[in-house]
Amino acid sequence: MRRAPAAILLALSACAPGPASDPGDPRAGVPSPAREFRAVWVATVDNIDWPSRPGLTSGRQRLEARAILDRSRDLGLNAVVLQIRPHCDALYVSPLEPWSYYLSGRPGEPPEPPYDPLEFWVEEAHARGLELHAWLNPYRADHPANREGLAPESIASRRPDLVRTLGDSGYLWLDPGSEEVREMTLTVFLDVAERYDVDGVHLDDYFYPYPSYSGGGDFPDEPTWQAYLEDGGGLDRADWRRQNVDRFVEGLYTRLRDLPRPVKLGISPFGVWRPGHPPSVRAGVDQYGMLFADPRRWLHEGWLDYCAPQLYWPISKVPQSFPVLLAWWARNNPHGRHVWPGLFTSSVAERGWAAREIVDQIMVTRGLLDPGPGHIHFSARAVLDSGRVGARGNRLKAALAKGPYRGPALAPATPWLDDEPPGAPAVKARVGDGELLLDWSRPEGEAPFLYVVYTKGRGTGWRHRIVPAARTELRLPHGEAGEKSAVEAVAVTSVDRMGNESELHAHTLESLL
Hints:
The protein contains 16 helices and 21 strands.
């Protein structure tokens, strides 16, 4: 038998049951649902995940989107992170930027017949009880996968003075040192958060570009650098660049907090803050010194709600060990923000990783990040599309379904944004033809996002089901008294958008009939 890695044993020991509930607690004896953020990135750049190719009809795009959402729900995920701005373009109806090439195959032209993809994804995700986070890239202005050039409305077409060309790579980049770029980009992000019912705004590791995009050369920001010096700036160039990125992150977080409803900000930086942190870690990329991103500071300042470092290495890879890096990120989190690492799940099908590697990584997160663990898979096709992942990918899905995803999970709460639980629904019950029909009323006040339906069977203990808020009834098998399928007690709670659960009031079935 293969011995479990030490990190797995550590994780499992940390998951040991805690003290028993207080007998005076109304939910004494009723176990709480597991809490874990289980998400997948849906990448649209180069049509990685969706839509499968440019130029599909709107109907086919919607069909593919529903398939991704159905498979996400069926696997046991509870969130989807959808890329809606690959490079200063829009996979949604935007008054600010042109339609993306990856939808219609023609930059600046809508899908045919016209519809709003983001509105569709939000509605369909929520109908399945899934959070929808909008993923936007702040500075990338063009990508070599865009094979049809730029739309006339593109910022690179309208304001070439704000854009930098990265060698002959095909990449164009907005200059983060420009105050105008920063304000324009913040306006785009906030427009999405204000007009769409998204659960989060998400950005990844593309701040200043990776040096390889310029053939190893430096970022060509001489005009804004000279302007900074002429205005009396005293930082060196590297610190100035980091300040530019810091100002954007702080500004985005601050302005999101001014919205009338809470919207989570998630950032997914490169998985190593700096080589040598922690001491055993080696890396060819120094994001602090090359991408001029300082996610450790963002955690220390509390400028995000969840940090998803891309920990794209195996558990046993000593120079970049998954648990060693994850523990470092968890330690550098003084405000207790969520740390939900990105997993390189596509490596199972594409690089020959064993399915067990991803399962073990999830177990490590449960041990090191308890309470409130989570993770994000890269990317949707790696865990959801049987036609693309092959036998290895299908074994992974089976291992997830039988292992860490065997039961449903609520996303961890985010109490610094909202710690007020919603009201509890009133429950009714009817019995007939071997079935129990439960229905409940929506509580007054804040609209629920989910319901949790608890049932206690004869000799089987309590179990629960997580139900989208669009549903207010549930049919269950119900046998005669004395049979194992007989339901003896029931409870229904509400869960809001920030993961707060209402009070639980357990009822005997007899009292409801």
